[in-house]
């Protein structure tokens, strides 16, 4: 019998790990620019430490303030996965803290993203080998009553995230890439990196082309008044 809202999907198609690894070192902003600027999570999802985020989405939806399904997700996820949690941006309860992040790290999980709160921020902020993103911090611990889903599409940071999506995060935030789009996005983002590297050299040499500004204003009908 179907039980939407309390169910676990045991498996999903993961992309080739090498495909995800090719996004390493590319700024999230450049990746997002080449996805028409609609594929980055909103600013409420922010880094809780300085570790870059890169891997395959393992999705979890929990009932607000409850983390029972997250515990199950930890035991199911594979090395290289990013556990992405829709906690409905609940600000009264932390979904996890230091102990659960330590267990994630020991199991080879690359990172965890929660549209909700964490606790034990001081310890998590100093971790060097697992990436954590969240919307806030609170000392209140979670409930364990259940409700939720594993490996179904979720909402996180204003975006739909599907199991197997490529997740890239840095100090600016997070971008979500459909694996089917990844090769083209990767090519465009690398080209933008090269273009920006040249722009930096031009800025240092006071040679950054600016004629496009007036040309664009004129084309849009901007009025100049003396």
Description:
The protein is of the alpha/beta class and 226 residues long. It has a single domain, classed as 3-Layer(bba) Sandwich (Glucose Oxidase, domain 1), CATH 3.50.30. Helices cover 29% and strands 28% of the residues. The protein has seven helices and twelve strands. The protein has helices at 17-21, 28-33, 68-76, 98-106, 121-125, 182-204, 211-219, and strands spanning 6-8, 46-47, 53-62, 81-96, 111-118, 131-134, 136-137, 148-150, 154-156, 159-161, 166-170, 173-177. The strands form two sheets. Strands 1, 2, 3, 4, 5, 6, 7, 8, 11 and 12 form a ten-stranded mixed sheet that branches. A two-stranded antiparallel ribbon has the order 9-10. The longest helix is centred in the C-terminal third of the chain and has 23 residues, at 182-204. The termini are far apart. The mean pLDDT is 97.
List the helices and strands and how they pair.
Elements: E1 6-8, H1 17-21, H2 28-33, E2 46-47, E3 53-62, H3 68-76, E4 81-96, H4 98-106, E5 111-118, H5 121-125, E6 131-134, E7 136-137, E8 148-150, E9 154-156, E10 159-161, E11 166-170, E12 173-177, H6 182-204, H7 211-219
Parallel strand pairs: 1-8, 3-4, 4-5, 5-6, 5-7
Antiparallel strand pairs: 2-6, 3-8, 3-11, 9-10, 11-12
Which short descriptors sum up this protein?
Glucose Oxidase, domain 1, 10-stranded mixed sheet, elongated, about 230 residues, 7 helices
